[in-house]
Amino acid sequence: MTTGWIVTIVIIVVLIAAIVGLYFLGRRAEKKKAEQDEQMAAVAQTVSMLIIDKKKLRLKDSGLPEQVIAQTPFYAKRSKLPIVKAKVGPKIMTFICEAEIFDDIPVKKEVKATISGLYITKVKGLHGKTQQQEVKKKKGFRAWLLKKQKELQSEEAKK
Predict the structure, then answer these.
(1) β-strand pairing of 119-125 with 91-97
(2) How many whole angstroms separate alpha carbon 41 and alpha carbon 35?
(3) What does pLDDT average to over the chain?
(4) Are 88 and 110 spatial neighbours (Cβ–Cβ below 8 Å)?
(5) Predicted local distance difference test score (pLDDT) of residue 63
(6) Under a CB-based contact definition with an 8 Å cutoff, are residues 86 and 145 in contact?
(7) Measured between alpha carbons, how far is 21 from 18 in angstroms, rounded to an integer?
(8) pLDDT tens digits, residue range 142-152?
(9) Around Cβ 95, how many Cβ atoms within 10 Å?
(10) Which of 123, 118, 78, 77 has the alpha carbon at shortest distance from 102?
(11) Topology (CATH level 3) of domain 44-125
(12) If 114 and its partner were Cys, which of 38, 52, 122, 158 is the partner (CB 3.0–4.6 Å)?
């Protein structure tokens, strides 16, 4: 065998081992996530709150209690989290929100939210439906080319 074939076989074996390892790590992570979701659902409660502000902030800038910041892993401290400031009763509190529902939360409106500790899991509008913001889809290079082509064709038709 030539050295080229040996190198190729070694690379393929390493890639297969990496894929198998990632598969088992993924399954373990799914099981942990399911357990955490069950625990969060067990302690969840519905609360009426007035949303004051929402932003994506780093953990140290979020205004969360020091105990929460101290318990987070080092790799998560630099990532940005969806943070919601809300008035619950007479208190103004800071919550962490699920990324999927962050865009659906209306600002300066009263909502009914399902919370689990400092974590918002679901939001419903208190007075009617919550307004979902329209997401402008970014157009790619192909769409830009088609637009330019139509403009050129319309200019040629005018001549």
Answers:
(1) parallel
(2) 10
(3) 87
(4) no
(5) 85
(6) no
(7) 5
(8) 888 888 888 88
(9) 23
(10) 123
(11) OB fold (Dihydrolipoamide Acetyltransferase, E2P) (2.40.50)
(12) 122
Sign of CA dihedral 48, 53, 54, 60: negative
Structure tokens at 6: 């040996």
Q: Which two tokens stand for residue 66?
A: 């020091």
> Which long-range contacts (C-beta less than 8 Å, at least 24 apart) are formed by 119-128?
119/40, 119/95, 120/84, 120/95, 120/96, 121/40, 121/44, 126/48
One-letter amino acid of 58: R
pLDDT at 126: 63
> Domain residue spans in the chain?
1-42, 44-125
Token code pair at residue 85: 């400031």
The one-character DSSP state at 41 is: H
DSSP codes, 126-156: SSSPPPPPPPPPPP-HHHHHHHHHHHHHHHH
> Which stretches does DSSP call E strand in 10-147?
45-58, 80-88, 91-97, 110-116, 119-125
The answer to whether 68 and 138 have CB atoms below 8 angstroms apart is no
Q: Is the dihedral of CA 29, 20, 76, 107 positive or negative?
A: negative
